[in-house]
Amino acid sequence: MTLRRWPIILFLLVATLATIRLVTTLAEPGSDDGGYADFRDTIHAPVVAMLDGVNPYDVSAYRDSDPDIGQAFPVYSPHHLLLTLPFGVLPRTAAGGLWWALNVVLLVTVSGFVMSRVKPEWGLAGTAGLAAAALLSNPGRFNFLTGQATLPLVLGTYVAFTSPNRWLAGAGTALALIKPQVGIPVLILLAAAGRWRVALDGAWMAAAASAPIVLALSIMEGSPGQLISAVRDNLDTSLSGDEATSSFRIDLLGVIGRETDRQFGTLVTALVFLALIALGIWLLRRWGRVDAVALAVVSLTTLLGLFHLPYDELLLIWPIAALILAGGGLGLGGWRWWAAGWMLAAAFNPLTVRFLRIGRGLDTITSLFLILALVGLTVGIVSRTGRTTPAASA
Question: Fewer CB atoms inside 10 A, N or C side of the chain?
Answer without folding.
Answer: N
